[in-house]
Amino acid sequence: MNFYEHLAEHPLKPQAKLAAAKFAPEHTDFRVESSISYLDSDDAVFNESSWAGPERSAGRKTYFRRDGAAFLTDTKFRSQDVERRLLEVLDAAGRVTARFTSAGALYRYWLTQVVDHDKALVVVDSKFSAKFLNAWTTVHVPKLFAFHSTHVKAGQDLLTGQLAEGHAPMIGQRTKWDGFVFLTEAQRGAYVERFGDEERTFVVPNPVRSGHVDPPRPQRNPAYLIAAGSLTVNKNVAASIRVVAELKQRGLDPTLNVVGHGAQLGALEQLAGELEVRDNVIFHGYSDQLPRHFASAAIHLLTSTNEGQALVLIESQQQGCVPVSFDINFGPADSITDGANGFLVPHGDITAMADKAELLIRDPQLAARMSAKASQFAEDWARRDIVGLWVDTRNKAAQLKQAGAPDKLPEFTADLQGMDFHDGSVKIRFAHGVPAPVDGQFELVLIGRDSKEVVASIPASEAAADSAAFAISTGILAQPRVADAIGDASVKFSLGTRSETKRLRLADPALVPYLTAYNNLSFKRG
Q1: The pTM is what?
Q2: Domains 119-203 and 221-382 share a fold
Q3: Which residue, 431, 420, 434, 450, is CA-closest to 494?
Q4: Confidence of residue 395 (pLDDT cuts 50, 70, 90)
């Protein structure tokens, strides 16, 4: 729905109290410079652009109904050395019925009238739109944001890493949203483990596109591999080319079909030349026949650094193309049962990926069995009622909205105050900054530096009005199940169903003590 076209045909409800225009352009002798007509009419003007003042210091765009009456003026000007904006909505008689100082405020007011009613659902999946819909408060309709990718920057730890730039504003203001929607259960679980609020998070996967292949169906080549997607750094198609080089060194003659386009094309072509596999790699560019490409290939290599759902895996499985994928966050493990309908290998392990590809090339019976299981999985996936899942999500979110917002999690700090060494244990003291009385629970969460797994979760042994403490056994990293020699410490604060985790840190230290590898005390500047 186009905002301007809708406003031209549907009167906007007048504001209950029309705000006075605090600022106005100094010059109002607007002169029309250009106009645009309605697409289906040469006579009806849709909008006019005009200017006023010396050096065109004020600009105005006026929008018209088909009968020639103006319904909106959008004026930009400078006042008191500040760039201003004034948007005024007009009724059929030319009277101002609503006034705003930003396009976002007008859009939110209009959107409330269009969708804020029972049985509706607002899903925002644009990070750009979410920036100004953070401030939009609805009465009836649940307002949800859909995550297409991980909440942290690429390569960052899910529990403690820096938030993705586009997602940080929504997460930081998550109390202004009625819920978040994720593509996979693993993606949702990682978010909940860090931020809590499990009740207001939902999983709705993307629907898979039709896998129809027009006849005649291509014959599958057992030595054909495929890498499909945009040629970006994140998709990491360079790793697929390295796999082909590895297979060629083992005496095989594979062909990698690269389907997609992007800024990395030149670098990938150069890499193929350097590895002496240029004749083994075909760059097809963009194709609207991706199912046919998958039907021709036996093996699909997915080498991305991170994904949201990796729907392309299911699209390849539809055609019986067996995926071999890096086991990354998120998506592959939701579509691939390792050894059954595809293979999962450690992220970045070119040799392991080449091993699985070689196994499929040299064992046609295994390839046929896995191909059939891949097709069956994709068929079962395609039968999922995605619309039904969205309806269930809407109903649950609406019930929660009607029940009222949960208690807001107080802001807290995790500022290290000191450590006391005892025989067999260490006591850690930190300032939390939660106003008294302290409601909720503090836990010390140790994350393995190498494994990124939770080594231990230890409740606070003491909790006062401004500080708390943990008692930790010195043998905690020496447990048989713990492979890590180093554990990174974070503080998790929980209140009801809501929680948040922050790294334990020194607050603006001038001098930092530390122990050397020989257990000697040293200091460094903060």
Answers
A1: 0.70
A2: yes
A3: 434
A4: very high
